[in-house]
Specification:
Helix content: 55-70%
Radius of gyration: 17 Å
Order of helices and strands: HHHHH
Structural class: mainly alpha
Low-confidence stretches: none
Oligomer: single chain
Distance between the termini: 34 Å
Length: about 130
């Protein structure tokens, strides 16, 4: 699903429609995954081993989704300012999706990919010349 980012024009003719087509699919998948799969493991008194395994699975899945998104989005070159804004909006939506899969409060420390996505958003708007000079 994430690889469909390369088919996205990042053109928003309707300003109220801010979600990319691939991001809508990711959101639907994540909502379904959280509702159909993760909710089945919400038992009233789970054993610690079950809790630890579910956290591991959630963290691994969140890492995979975030890193795959950042790898694919970073391959897109020559972005116009509106395209950068569209990707930044997608990053914010991806953070919400990841919260469905692996909520921050489920961990002692927030997963690293939340910080990575914030840094990625900042990198989108860096001046290319400033990057080359450093």
């Amino acid at each position: 699903m994430i690889e469909q980012i390369h088919n996205e024009a990042f053109y928003r003719p309707n300003p109220t429609k801010t979600t990319s087509k691939y991001m809508r699919r990711i959101v639907r998948w994540s909502e379904t995954f959280a509702r159909e799969t993760l909710s089945r493991y919400k038992i009233s008194n789970p054993a610690p081993v079950v809790i630890m395994e579910m956290q591991r699975v959630r963290l691994e899945l969140g890492n995979y989704v975030a890193s795959t998104f950042m790898r694919n989005a970073s391959l897109i070159s020559g972005l116009r300012e509106d395209a950068k804004l569209a990707i930044a909006s997608d990053v914010a939506q991806l953070e919400a999706v990841l919260h469905l899969i692996a909520p921050k409060e489920s961990f002692a420390f927030p997963p690293k990919y939340y910080a990575d996505l914030r840094h990625f958003k900042r990198i989108l708007f860096l001046d290319e010349k400033a990057i080359v000079e450093k």
